[in-house]
Amino acid sequence: MLEQNEKSLKDQAQGESQKAMLFVPYRYNRPQMLPPLICSRRLYVHLILLLVIVFMLVIIRLMSTVKVNFVHFHLESDSDAELVTLPSQFAHSRGALCLDGSPPAYYFRPSLLSVKFWIIYLPGGAWCNSEYDCFQRSLTELGSSHVAKISIPMVGILSNDCEINPDFCLWNVLVLHYCDGSSFLGNDSTVRSYESQSLYLRGAVVFEALIDYLKESTDLAEAEQVVLAGSSAGGIAALIHADRLRTMLPHSVKTVHALVDAAMFLDLPDVRGNFELANLFKSVYSFHSIENSKSIQECTETQPNITERWRCLLPEVYYKFVFTPIYFVNSVYDTWQRTYLLKISCFASACPSVHRDVVYNARDSILTFAHNITRYKKNGVYLTWCPVHTILNQLRFSSAELGDSTVQQSLSSWLQHDLSQITGDKNFLSLEAALEVCKSSIKL
């Protein structure tokens, strides 16, 4: 009996023990182990993302500075003209290229009133007359459209300020980018080279390609009045291309005038007796094959001596062949001519008497040239005693210091068909007195 009770107690204890050890399953989430913040794979991803961001920033930066190839008003100033580069295919199909092979370009500021009056301006910039000289030039904006300014300010005769430029302030303005080094007259179909760099001497081709493109892409094809103006080397271009331009323009054009600024270059001896201008023009004429330019051939074909055909580059020779009315603007003491052609770097009283004699001989020669120009009643001349170089595209265009009347006033009278005459200064001062009187204008 006692044994049965003990056995019963053991069984009961064992059962309770089993109940106490009963396992009840319970679902739980296993803790996730995060990968380390920096591992080789993630580092690569971050680097790639960083490179993409940097690349996008570079692209945005480049896009913000790229030249604009369509016309729009400049945000900084509505008086600026915007650069337009000819399509590469158009330029190459015509062989019209800057010295470095880049396509030609022009600056454009449309008229605010959409008038049918156009002024085409050819800027100065001298010339190049050798492979080395033209190669050096091709690295600058004077030989390439790739480094040309995106926009340029319009002042003087190009200004849209009607107070200082009442005759042209509402006109459409075109400035042809000068990038050939030959006054837009070169016509060499071959390709020159210097240190493995190709050089293109195609100034005349560039001029005609620009005019053709403008007729296709702007309202120049509907123009009624056109003025072709140029300063210095651009003045030579305006003089020689004036009649050629007339033949290229549509029949809607009623009048064409040429304005020649700071380009009354004369074949005179310098202080050493050398003829610097003759030597320069001979080399430019030959090097750029200017004899092949259509614009100059009416003159060159009349020269019996082939070696003297370069003289058609001289305004005193070529103006006689121009049918288009011409207005010359010049200083009798032109600073560029005095320094580079006459080789005189001193000023007035500091100059030896022999140097002053050369200066005054040049002055008298310009006066004689002016009188010859105005023998043709269609022509006009404005002369100033102020020693400056270029006036039309400068603030001094409307300066009263330049003479008895401003260039703007005299030009306006000529355009209104007043009698042709020499205007500006009536009694020319000595160089020393002119320097004193013209202090303000010289700085403009």
Automatic annotation (TrEMBL):
State the similarity comment: Belongs to the pectinacetylesterase family. Notum subfamily.
| GO molecular function list | hydrolase activity
Task: Please name the InterPro entries in this protein's record.
Answer: AB_hydrolase_fold, PAE/NOTUM
Designated name of the protein: Uncharacterized protein LOC106050933
Membrane-crossing ranges are: 43-63
Q: What is the lineage of its organism?
A: Eukaryota, Metazoa, Spiralia, Lophotrochozoa, Mollusca
The record's keywords, sorted A to Z, are: Membrane, Transmembrane, Transmembrane helix
Source organism's superkingdom? Eukaryota
Q: Which PANTHER family does the record cross-reference, listed alphabetically?
A: NOTUM-RELATED, PECTIN ACETYLESTERASE
